[in-house]
Specification:
By secondary structure, this protein is of the alpha/beta class. It has helices at about 10-25, 40-55, 80-85, 110-120, 160-165, 185-190, 205-210, 235-240, 245-255, and strands at about 1-5, 30-35, 60-65, 65-70, 100, 130, 155, 180, 190-195, 230-235. The strands form two sheets. The protein has a seven-stranded parallel beta sheet with strand order 1-10-9-6-2-3-5. A three-stranded antiparallel beta sheet has the order 4-8-7. The chain binds fructose -6-phosphate (F6R). Fructose -6-phosphate (F6R) binds near residues 38, 134 and 139.
């Protein structure tokens, strides 16, 4: 795991988008794992800008989102399909047929998880998984106690997640209490993982996930088990990390990060 600390959210977002765009240039038929949420909105805006102004080409890319609310149709403004179309897919040249989310209104809810896993496997697996972190440590909607070996399935959301996300609904009580989510095991199968964390409200959980023990109580701590993870945090989110100086030293000295240091 590597942790990169940027001075503010804007530069953390720019770095995240640049890493995604550079990986896409190297492998135009990339399979992305994508996240939603407030943190990602700026990343998708930056990717749309890179597409328009710098010609970053999504035409051969495929994508799989982490999660979707159960009971919300794609047309629902609060569904993650709607979010993805609005924030990213409609603003870049990705083929919508190559974009996938769990089906929140699947007829057979028990079959939807295995179906989604199969479509990911048929695409050759996820090359780059983009993640945010919830205030309770979730990645995707893998709430505390999610098995570290879990696969895509239905999950009941915690009161913390309800509190975090229900203000995004016109009527907060309309927020579903269940969602489909890729499992922690599904996420760990990705070849590379990039997690973006910004804002002081994430500082405590980020420190626990990065520097605390691996525990199913904090799903993001499972990222410590993955061989290729980079966590990009702004100063506000990084404030409780004990190893800050070492993480900064790595970013300043590792040749891999040389092209990104002047951003
Ligand atoms: C949503 C997802 C979640 C969010 C997390 C942070 O697809 O994967 O794990 O990344 O809840 O959300 P924000 O960015 O709104 O704080």
């Amino acid at each position: 795991m590597e942790v990169i600390i940027r001075p503010d959210a804007r530069s953390a977002v720019k770095l995240t988008a640049r890493i995604i765009a550079d990986d896409l240039k190297k492998k135009p038929d990339m399979v992305f794992g994508l996240a939603t949420g407030r943190t990602m909105e700026a990343v998708y805006a930056e990717l749309a800008r890179l597409h328009k102004e710098c010609g970053v080409d999504f035409s051969l890319a495929k994508s799989f989102n982490l999660d979707e609310y159960i009971g919300l149709a794609p047309e629902n403004k609060n569904s993650y399909r709607y979010y993805m179309n609005y924030h990213l897919f409609n603003n870049v040249n990705i083929d919508l047929r190559n974009t996938h989310l769990p089906d929140g209104i699947a007829e057979d809810l028990d079959a939807e998880g295995p179906r989604y896993e199969q479509v990911i496997a048929d695409a050759g697996g996820i090359d780059l998984q983009l993640l945010g972190i919830g205030c309770d440590g979730h990645i995707g909607f893998n709430e505390p106690l999610s098995s570290l070996a879990s696969r895509t399935r239905q999950k009941a959301l915690t009161p913390e997640t309800y509190e975090q996300n229900s203000p995004l609904f016109d009527n907060p009580q309309d927020m579903p209490k269940r969602a489909f989510t890729m499992g922690v095991g599904t996420i760990l199968d990705a070849k590379r993982i990039v997690m973006l964390v910004t804002g002081p409200e994430k500082a405590e959980i980020l420190a626990k996930a990065v520097e605390g023990p691996v525990t199913s109580m904090i799903s993001a701590s499972a990222l410590q088990l993955h061989p290729r993870v980079v966590i990009i945090a702004d100063e506000d989110a990084a404030v409780k990390l004990e190893g800050k100086n070492y993480y900064r030293w790595i970013f300043q000295n590792e040749p891999e990060w040389e092209p990104y240091r002047s951003m």
